[in-house]
Amino acid sequence: MSSSISPLATPFPALPVIAGVVPHVARAQYKTWDRCDLTFVTLAEGTSVAGVVTQSKCPSPEVEWCRKALTLGTARALVVNAGNSNAFTGHRGRAAVEAIAARTAQHLGCQPSDVFVASTGVIGVPLPIDKAEAGLDAAFAATPCDWRAAAETIGTTDTYPKGATTTAIVDGRTVTLVGIIKGSGMIAPDMATMLGFVFTDAAVTPGFLQAALNAANRNTFSCITVDGDTSTSDTVLAFATGAAGNAPLGDAHSDGADAFAAALADLCAQLALLVVRDGEGATKLIEIAVTGAESDASAHRIAMSIANSPLVKTAIAGEDANWGRVVMAVGKAGEPAERDKLSIRFGETQVAREGLAVEGYDEAPVAAHLKGQEIEVGVDLGLGDGVATVWTCDLTHGYISINADYRS
Amino acid sequence: MSSSISPLATPFPALPVIAGVVPHVARAQYKTWDRCDLTFVTLAEGTSVAGVVTQSKCPSPEVEWCRKALTLGTARALVVNAGNSNAFTGHRGRAAVEAIAARTAQHLGCQPSDVFVASTGVIGVPLPIDKAEAGLDAAFAATPCDWRAAAETIGTTDTYPKGATTTAIVDGRTVTLVGIIKGSGMIAPDMATMLGFVFTDAAVTPGFLQAALNAANRNTFSCITVDGDTSTSDTVLAFATGAAGNAPLGDAHSDGADAFAAALADLCAQLALLVVRDGEGATKLIEIAVTGAESDASAHRIAMSIANSPLVKTAIAGEDANWGRVVMAVGKAGEPAERDKLSIRFGETQVAREGLAVEGYDEAPVAAHLKGQEIEVGVDLGLGDGVATVWTCDLTHGYISINADYRS
């Protein structure tokens, strides 16, 4: 991981063990670095799995592998490679994923289709099969690690490890959820996200797990953006071992099902914000709340237009209440908007109302708000009931420095 | 204008006088600066006009004024204010535009609807009517100026004045076209552009002029982007005085009509590239050529996805042949694409073909190409006959510096 930690970083929390889930890490040395870069997690027999992956038209072979394996709904292992995304590598990339699944299945005595694989790093270089196999063998031989080590090992340009936990009461028992995630740049998940992994001891059918993950994703991973650039490798997988012993959650409606879905959504929201807080070069976390749009979908597109505007993001980096750039970003979104009904606030202060600057508004609280690390921009369209909230970060010299010389 | 000139700047060319067109400039002092900021151009009676304006849903009152006045097809004057865009200023902004048109009409003895008004600068501050009227009166009293002075006066964050000229043979006579343009940031014209003005002595009906301008715009202004941020004020107007005395060009097809349309398209292409060359912080001019897409429209959207990708633009700023980011940008465009048919070149060198890196390609010419100021990226989708070419610039520390403290 990078040596300069994001000013928005939060401490890694204490994460509990999840019964049936055992993480390990090893050095595959996909790059010339002295750190673990292969994560291998074993999962108890009977583990359910659900996932969402990138909608990119140029997905990595790992994404294609997971998409196919998800149709079966069961999992025994997760393998994550850092430093090489293996994307855009043709038949050689596909062969690498197949080799990893085969080697893992051999060790565990399971089907290759029970092995989920994700990779992150440079695009266009086939993952070296020999290094992957040696790394897997080392991981099998290694002592299990804690979540922090796993979270560190899946990172690339990340500046701090990211994990979260929550619980829910299901069927009279406490079930526990843990998630780890990586991501810092190339973040504009399109119905999916960076590499994120959720583990729970709840007993859940694959169908219910997928439905709950889809719902959580809609308001969390799909509502964050760092740079508007959607990765070829975005993957979120959720694994449920069933070790908590609750009556399995399935299609039937129950309080436990609601509690589990709410807990999963809460966990995903925590993980998504951790990624934005590590946005490349970020110094401010920005929440964009759009109300009064013609529909929720329209509100989301307007919010994303603001969140991806380089001019809005640089203004906030400069602590400048340049709400004219917010107007610009609303106008270019291509969604219904009427200038003379538009209102804008920074923090709690209305700066424009119904198409006009608010005369003589107090600039002091606005300036104070913009000097903080957590910025709120509110936009009301005055047209209907559509709402959406998205999160992004500012655009700074740090982003340029990181990305003008990352590959080489 | 800014004191640090873009490294991609080209010298201001010698521009001829256009019979029937007389430019003047004056100091309205819309900002606290010591420079001319009001441009006033008189046009001979019988001048035809055509225009394209922003598709922003939050357009400036100037844009709304021009859109309405364009329906009449005739013009007697153009007034351009720099330093204040007058956008998002409600009824006070509308009143300012009406006052400018009325004062100008009074001076010229014409209809207010014959006066075209454009403004550029900060959003959200009503244009002060007293300064505008005093500036107009001063401009009327002033000696006419040359094109260079006019081009300098319409600029804001521009680092150099921008103008171009060309000619066409129409009806046995040489007609001359001159254009001036401003723009540097907030450049992603949506079927229109920054402020651009074209003047010709050709005799042309408003209908033909509009059709020729629409066609030119499609392949020029609508194919450039600096930051993906579409302005509230984008306006291109073309004025034809008829002083060349050719038989007026109208709906009938003729060699002269073709020659004029081609000359107009050439002029618009020159002007559009001048804007990209002055992109905020730009150090490289980038041409993105997409071929083999399912349609021209699809090719255009893919090319724009690449041209607006912060990761592609920072890689080129860093002279890094990181074609994996080009793959990413193709994948996120939402257009038909098949990873295993995709080919990519930098300059003349193929770096990826049919979904794989070209093994052992010669990196020397690629590195040399990327060290230059004019970069070509070619992408072939391998699917159909759709083509598109767009132009952008790199994303550098300069962009951040300019935009993190522009307003205040």
Gross morphology of chain A:
globular
- Number of helix segments of chain A? 11
Q: Give the topology string of chain A: H per helix, E per strand.
A: EEHEHEHHEEEHEHEHHHEEEHEEH
Number of strands of chain A: 14
Helix content of chain A: 25-40%
Task: Supply the CATH superfamily name of the largest domain in chain A.
Answer: L-amino peptidase D-ALA esterase/amidase
The Rg value of chain A, from CA coordinates, equals 22 Å
Q: Can you tell me the number of structural domains of chain A? A: 2
- Residue windows where pLDDT falls under 50 for at least 5 positions of chain A: none
| Residue share in β-strands of chain A | 25-35%
Name the assembly state. homodimer
Major sheet size, sense and barrel closure of chain A: 8 strands, mixed
Description:
The structure is a homodimer of 408-residue chains. The first copy, chain A, has 408 residues and is α+β, with helices and mostly antiparallel strands. The first copy, chain A, has two domains: 21-277, L-amino peptidase D-ALA esterase/amidase (4-Layer Sandwich), CATH 3.60.70.12; 285-403, ArgJ beta chain, C-terminal domain (Ubiquitin-like (UB roll)), CATH 3.10.20.340. Chain A is built from eleven helices and 14 strands. The first copy, chain A, has helices at 61-69, 90-108, 129-141, 147-153, 206-219, 255-277, 296-307, 310-317, 323-332, 363-371, 397-403; strands at residues 21-26, 38-53, 74-84, 115-122, 162-170, 173-181, 195-200, 235-240, 285-293, 343-346, 349-353, 356-357, 374-380, 386-393. In chain A, the strands form two sheets. In chain A, strands 1, 2, 3, 4, 5, 6, 7 and 8 form an eight-stranded mixed β-sheet that branches. Chain A has a six-stranded mixed β-sheet with strand order 12-11-10-13-9-14. In chain A, β5 (162-170) and β6 (173-181) form a beta hairpin. In chain A, α2 (90-108) packs parallel to α3, α5 (206-219) packs across α6 and α7 crosses α9 (323-332). Chain A is globular, with a radius of gyration of 22 Å. The model of chain A has no long low-confidence stretch (mean pLDDT 92). Chains A and B meet through α8, α9, β12 and α11 of A and α8, α9, β12 and α11 of B.
